[in-house]
Amino acid sequence: MYTFELIKIVVYCAKYNSHIVMQCVSHKNIISSENAETAAPRPFTVLMPVFNQCGFVRRAVSSLFSQTYAHWELIIINDGSTDALNEFIADYLTDSRIKYIENPENYGLGYALNRGLDAASYDLIAYLPADDFFYENHLQTLADALAKPEVALAFTGIRFDDSKDSGFLDYKTCKGAIPGYCTQLVQVAHRKTADRWTEREECVSEDLFYLFWRKLTGRGAFAPCQTVTCEWCCHPNQRHKICGERYGGGLNKYRAYYGVKQPIRFRSGKYKIFDEVGNYAPYRNHVVSYSEGLKILLVGELAYNPERIYALERSGQRLYGLWAQPRFGYSTVGHLPFGNVEDVPYENWRERVKEINPDVVYALLSTSAIEIAHEVLMADTGIPFVWHFKEGPQEAQKAGLWDKLITLYARADGRIYLNAEEKRWIEQFIPPVPEECCLLLDGDMPLADSFSDRFSPKLSASDGEIHTVVAGRVVGLSPNDYAELARNGIHLHVYSENLTPDEASQPFLAVDRTHFHIHNHCPQHRWTEEFSQYDAGWLHCVDGGNDGNVLKMTWADMNLPARISTYLVAGIPMIQKRNASHIFAQRSYVGGYGMDICYDTITEVVDVLKDQRLMAEKVDNVLANRHRFSFDANVETLTGFFRRIISNKKV
Q: Which CATH class is domain 280-447?
């Protein structure tokens, strides 16, 4: 029987080299399509899932009509499209070979394909996404491969655009999976079985092997056809680009694009799963009194630790959300899987906002929010407007959003700055404003519920060595620095799904494999238990370059990395560069409470980490101050600021 691990190799090996695919297919359980037994033609059911791709669909259907293998039916599953799909396919629906299924709203790829499988008339299943197309010999090639009864699934070669920049095309072909991707729908056919696609209610993933192909591994062999017979179309709204973090997508892009209204389990990487169903269950069934609270219109996105916004609701505020289109996977937008935040439809936001009549507009938080926040500001609704910007002014500049960003700061009724350093930098560009209209507050602090007391025993207590952690990617720490740490028995544990032995970790592993450890993603509800086992955590260890001059400040000088909250929740001190002669927000934010280990040379870090008395003092400082960095601890200050801005507006 064909083993699970070998199947994975066949499906993914083209990620490394298409030649490897050809080597793998010689295994006795992978059947060549050559010498297939002659049999009567067996029809295919071709499944076409469609969501807002009317501009592509006619080419796809036309490619099916052009097949040399004429034994097929087509099932088009319209998964809640809001474009002109029905108009574009109306003439096709008179063909008796074509069935049409229409979902009233988008239920996800798995549900759409399962409806197609349930309606399939034939035992051979092929797939034709609306944005892809077949070459004339596609179905014939797959039929030949599936003629052998031992074959459960066959896949053809594929042509694809491998260019990374818009405006350029770089077509390539491969005989298996496209390098860096799983085997795509358009190149696969299989025998119909009782197996069904994983649906949205179970788990969302861009990985089709995870969603379905793996379920067929026990049904028979997987046969490569070794012939290129189809094409994979490249465009920004491909599903894997919406879903996969490694392709620029993520949970929030998926939620926004497909209009998802319920909590989901989302597999954004091989080892990274978000369980909104379980994690946010305590926040969904609750009763809150809004009698004396504010009506707050959130405009933009919530970035990291989005559940913090529940603290506003828990304190009696009524929340509404007018959401941005997320630029990044971490740009959290609604529909929110926690609390009771009412979504305001963008299509008629002015009318709905007028009906709501909120007390204040709270526009936030990062680059994704700039355009929609600017639109609301310039609409001159008369509602007090507060602008809270977390990060990326230089990024906004590069993205052509600078004028809008500065307008938000200049014209907002209230301004919330990340810290004093960012405030000093921004105030270079705007006219003077009263200090009472300004507030300093980190925008994405975690909810107090994250600060548990479930601390784990230190690893150092069991092996006598020192263990440090990086929550995310390694920033500023070089392999030479790591070599010095390893020589002194200091371990480096890295939690990043993007760091693999073949990529960014390799320079560190080349130095010493015994003190460098790669771990899977750790969800927020386990931060305390997981990260408290370490002695200290590494921040962004970058060198300042401004020499105390505001004009020369960069984003690194103003930034407060999200990992600060992670380490605070875990109760561990933080390691960072001293940068004594530079304006450096991270140092003043963490060092102001004595929670950090500052250094100019890595030897200083070694000395402090080995000083048990000093380390105990650092840990005590973190534990004494950690709760002041929860969002809940700052809600009263924030709502008080809103009320002051509202009062000023009335005057």
A: alpha beta
Distance CA 151, CA 33 (A): 9
Beta partners for residue 577, in sequence order: 599
Contact yes or no for 466/491 (Cβ under 8 A): yes
Structure tokens at 412: 């907002």
Has domain 4-32+46-243 been given CATH number 3.40.50.12780?
no
Q: Minimal CA–CA distance to 334: which of 251, 225, 402, 415?
A: 251
Contact 384, 361 (CB under 8 A): yes
What residues are paired with 597 via a beta bridge?
Answer: 575
Strands 221-232 and 265-269, how do they pair?
Answer: unpaired
637 Cβ contact partners less than 8 Å away, ≥ 6 residues apart: 439, 441
Round to whole Å and give the CA distance between 389 and 7: 47
Q: Strand (E) positions, 233-291? A: 265-269, 272-275
DSSP β-bridge partners for residue 228: 157
Indicate the residue type of 349. W
Is pLDDT of 287 > 80? no
Burial class (CB in 10 A: 0-12, 13-18, 19+), 43: middle
Structure tokens at 260: 């998802």
Query: Where do the CATH 3.40.50.2000 domains begin and end in the chain?
Result: 280-447, 452-629
Between CA 597 and CA 466 the distance in angstroms is 14
Residue-wise DSSP of 128-139: --TT-EE-TTHH
Quickly tell me which residue has 């509800």 as its tokens. Answer: 525
Instruction: Give the tens place of pLDDT for each residue, 153-177.
Output: 999 999 999 887 777 788 999 999 9
**DSSP state for residue 259 in the 8-state scheme:** T
Tell me how many degrees the CA angle 375-321-242 measures, rounded to the nearest 5. 85
What are the tokens at 126? 């092929």
Contact residues for 505 (Cβ-Cβ < 8 A; gap 6+): 494, 499, 516, 518
What's the rounded Cα separation, in Å, for the pair 99 and 142?
22
Average pLDDT of span 613-628 = 97
Residue indicated by tokens 């469609």: 50
468 DSSP β-pair partners: 492, 536
Chain mean position to CA 58: 32
pLDDT digits (tens, 9 = 90+) for 392-442: 899 999 999 999 999 999 999 999 999 999 999 999 999 999 999 999 999
C-alpha distances out from residue 491 to 464, 488, 515, 566, Å: 11, 9, 5, 19
| Distance in angstroms (rounded) separating the CA atoms of residues 360 and 382 | 10
CATH number of 452-629: 3.40.50.2000
Largest CA distance in the chain: 87
Q: Are 199 and 110 in contact (CB under 8 A)?
A: yes
Q: Where are the beta strands (DSSP E) in 212-264?
A: 221-232
Q: Which residues lie across from 533 on neighbouring strands? A: none
pLDDT score of 204 more than 90: yes
Query: Can you give the pLDDT at residue 165?
Result: 72
* Adjacent-strand bridge partners of 45: 73, 125
Using DSSP's 3-state secondary structure scheme, residue 508 falls into helix
Q: Give the residue range(s) of CATH 3.90.550.10 domains in the chain.
A: 4-32+46-243
Cis omega (within 30 of 0) on the bond before 6?
no
Nearest partner of 135 among 186, 207, 189, 205, judged by Cα: 186
The answer to whether residues 311 and 632 touch, using CB atoms and an 8 Å cutoff, is yes
CA quadruple 77, 79, 80, 81: dihedral sign: negative
Q: Show the tokens assigned to 269.
A: 């990487």
Q: Where are the alpha helices (DSSP H) in 295-335?
A: 310-314
Where would I find the H helices in 437-554? 459-463, 479-487, 506-511, 527-531
